[in-house]
Amino acid sequence: MLATVLHGPGDVRFEHVEEPRILLPTDAIIKLSASCICGSDLWPYRGLQPMNGPAHMGHEYCGIVVDVGSDVTTVKPGQFVVGSFCLSDNTCPHCQHGFQSSCVQREFMSGAQAPYARVPLADGTLVATPEVPPEDLIPSLLAVSDVLGTGWYAADAARVQPGSTVVVVGDGAVGLMGVLSAKQMGAGRIIAMSRHKHRQELALEYGATDIVTERGEAGVAQIKALTGGVGADSVLECVGTQESMRQALQSARPGAMVGYVGVPHGVEFDGQSLFFAQVGMLGGPAPVRRFLPHLMDLVLTRKINPGKVFDLAIPLADVAEGYRAMDERRAIKTLLRV
Amino acid sequence: MLATVLHGPGDVRFEHVEEPRILLPTDAIIKLSASCICGSDLWPYRGLQPMNGPAHMGHEYCGIVVDVGSDVTTVKPGQFVVGSFCLSDNTCPHCQHGFQSSCVQREFMSGAQAPYARVPLADGTLVATPEVPPEDLIPSLLAVSDVLGTGWYAADAARVQPGSTVVVVGDGAVGLMGVLSAKQMGAGRIIAMSRHKHRQELALEYGATDIVTERGEAGVAQIKALTGGVGADSVLECVGTQESMRQALQSARPGAMVGYVGVPHGVEFDGQSLFFAQVGMLGGPAPVRRFLPHLMDLVLTRKINPGKVFDLAIPLADVAEGYRAMDERRAIKTLLRV
Predict the structure, then answer these.
(1) A181 lies in the same domain as A120
(2) Of A32, A202, A199, A218, which is closest to residue A114 (Cα–Cα)?
């Protein structure tokens, strides 16, 4: 089959690869209903993350099961499934505590920017819908797999409560999903930091009550001005740089939590500063599996529309253009039609 | 009067100082019922923290109000009071959120290793007992002021729940109070890390279920062995060094919280390691004021006996010996009889 392989910085190729097949009795093979490009795919694309040779790209997925290994009992061929970008057995103690992204058997999904993909640990990872969903819900169900699940985790880790004042740092797809998630959790005020008109509009549509366009010290000053000098109860850090993390920490009131989901690149913390700021932190790869049933239900009952975050939809064969569009910030997130 | 002044590393003097008097209408003056030496007093005593000239030592206190400023309404001369080592107005937004240790008017108490002390922000800081308590409860009420309040905050920040598995890093007075606090909060298992027999005994008396004597990698391995390879739900970091913080983070399971109350000295965190460990953190100076009424009640009704942490009681005039005893770890915590 033809699928997406990253050969080096800026070098995305749609080329022949072996079709996936069952390697372990716990595997499933799915036919992708759609695929997409993640903000985190841009780290290696931009040469900001080391690579060990060519990489089969794509970790967000939903689709129809076409084959399962002999140990798989919870899904079967013909079913529509969504899975997390973190593969987990969903039975180990970490999974039982709701942190499936730290499963003792954890693997990260790969190879999903393709017509077919192998999903290891299928029983623990995949959740099937009662029936094959209508076509128009595919983008939203695909979003659940990572970008919505990650934004939701940011809000959960930041302990958003009904009435909370929330700041979202980062106006990428995850940040926008963070806005949606905070809104669903009942936040009273949601301040989105964004300098891009199109993203601001989507943030407002997803529930943002305020937009702050400034960054750095000026951005923090604006947050403080909007919160009577206090700072936010919950901050969602959805970027992963030292600047965005500083912005997040300084936007939080003492006792607040920062949920950080942007993979930190070059981020360091000084213990004493963090201590006296008295700001709590919880981050990590999102345990999407914990949230999957609830988020899939919200989509299937059309209560949320996370799929709107895909503002570019192109054929899978044009995947290289999809990377370029996101790299140049012409697109928030690219859907790949399979 | 004669009081305690630290002139430089190792140089504690009991010498003549001016008697405190009302400087602001929000001040109170108290006659100390007892005073004590804090583990944090040892940082400057050991030369590990810069000093700006001689310092009037002592920030833990309880006693009888002898004078109040014209604005003070909640306490009056003759009443017995306990206050936090963090002075706060208890009305600002941070105080209202329960983080009085980040009060917009916050000051740190000083000069309480003395017969009399000035307490700024008296209305917000002090809590009076219904009547003057019996003499034998004074050590426990004094402990509430900082060491118990700080151990309690560590457990609160680490989100100890009924049934939780808790690790306490540090067998100083705060660590021992962390054990007591976790027990009060209903922890199912409390693992105290301690190499000192006397401290181990007190930890067991306060509710520890297990003692780990190893440190570093061996200590972490022991914690993992005791928790079926999982790690703790909550970790209380009560030291403040890079080694103790590493120990704390590595003892925690993914999704756990580390409550850290040892003032970090030279502690740094790598963002990416923290991200993939998926361990949450909340620290800072303890908002003791939030807990004061509850903790004072637990002492007055004799449900807890935190005062037992004082294993050396000497006259205030011998304060220099009290510092030496704690510095040399001959004493866990020194009570100063006034």
Answers:
(1) no
(2) A32
Same domain flag for A117 and A206: no
Asked whether residue B65 falls in the same domain as residue B75, the answer is yes
Kindly determine whether residue B254 and residue A228, on different chains, have CB atoms separated by under 8 Å. Answer: no
Q: Which CATH number covers residue A107?
A: 3.90.180.10
Inter-chain residue contact A272 with B280, CB threshold 8 Å: no
Cβ distance A254 to B97 less than 8 Å, yes or no, reads: yes
Among B127, B123, B198, B186, residue whose Cα is nearest residue B156: B186
Q: What is the mean pLDDT of residues B182-200?
A: 97
Instruction: For A288-304, give the DSSP string.
Output: HHHHHHHHHHHHHTTS-
Structure tokens belonging to residue B195: 């190499």
Average pLDDT on B303-327 reads: 98
pLDDT in tens, A96-138: 999 999 999 999 999 999 999 999 999 999 999 999 999 999 9
Is the pLDDT at A49 greater than 90? The verdict is no
Name the β-bridge partners of A55: A6
Task: Tell me: pLDDT of A303 over 90.
Answer: yes
Q: How far is B7 from chain A (nearest CA, A)?
A: 25
CA atoms within 13 A on the CB side of B89: 10
Contact B280 A281 (CB under 8 A): yes
User: Which of A107, A165, A278, A288 to probe the B interface (max B CBs under 10 A)?
Assistant: A278
Is B24 in a helix, a strand, or coil?
Answer: coil
> Pick from B99, B253, B283: which is nearest to A274 by CB?
B283
pLDDT in tens, B200-258: 999 999 999 999 999 999 999 999 999 999 999 999 999 999 999 999 999 999 999 99
Mean pLDDT for A208-233 is: 97
* Region of poorest pLDDT, from A39-43, A156-160, B64-68, B147-151: A39-43
Regarding whether B246 and B155 lie in a shared domain, the answer is yes
Residue A33, token pair as written in the block: 């209903």
Q: How does A233-265 read in b/e, with b if 16+ C-beta sit within 10 Å?
A: bbbbbbbbbeebbbbbbbbbbbbbbbbbbbbbe
- Please report the ipTM that was assigned to this predicted complex: 0.94
Domain that holds residue A292: 2-148+286-337
